[in-house]
Amino acid sequence: MAESIARGVVASGMLPPNRISTAVHSNLNRREVFESFGVNVFSSSEEVVKESDVVIFSVKPQVVKKAITELKSKLSKDKLLVSVAAGIKLKDLQEWSGQDRFIRVMPNTPATVGQAASVMSLGTAATEEDGALVAKLFGSVGKMFRADEKMFDAVTGLSGSGPAYIFLAIEALADGGVAAGLPRELALGLASQTVLGP
Fold it and tell me: Which residues does the UniProt record annotate as the domain Pyrroline-5-carboxylate reductase catalytic N-terminal (predicted)?
């Protein structure tokens, strides 16, 4: 998701790549991917936090608590904190970080091509200005909606997981085309464009 967001923000012109930073700890292939489009890559998350006004936690849900608690001493009310980790509630994010200026966002992978469907909910100390900034940031990679956090499980099921179901539908349409005599490449192209059209 971090790559999708970063690529989308850069492609939209919202931010130049040198204004975006990330940390890559072990997988050198990930470092090369981010560096290939100009994003600053640091060896530690502490360096990213130090250099950032907005910190987006884009890690797997099972490691978000560890990631936040390890950075707790570096986080302050001067930094807007954003989480895109599915299933992790604002109250927990705020408790682990010791900060209430948190915004929870549920984007989806079409952010890479500027067609994300993202939903946000503001933490207790996040201001309307913070919300507007996050809406602009994620709005640069698609459409941004706002909803009460109690709706986020349904949001995750619909728009967070929805692209995977659409990929299955495209594959099934293409399989039907192949069964009717179309070459696979043509069938996939037609199925993909058919789904894109509506």
Answer: 1-87
Average model confidence (pLDDT) for the chain?
A: 91
Distance CA 61, CA 48 (A): 20
Sorted by where each begins, the domain ranges of the chain are 1-147, 162-196
Give CA separation, 90 vs 7, 54, 133, in Å. Answer: 26, 16, 18
Residues 6+ apart with CB under 8 A from 40: 17, 18, 20, 21, 22, 51
Of the options 3.40.50.720, 3.40.50.920, 3.40.1280.10, 3.10.310.40, the CATH number for the domain spanning 1-147: 3.40.50.720
Closest Cα partner for 104 from 50, 52, 144?
Answer: 144
User: What would the pLDDT profile of 80-114 be if each residue is shown by its tens digit?
Assistant: 999 999 899 999 999 999 999 999 999 988 887 88
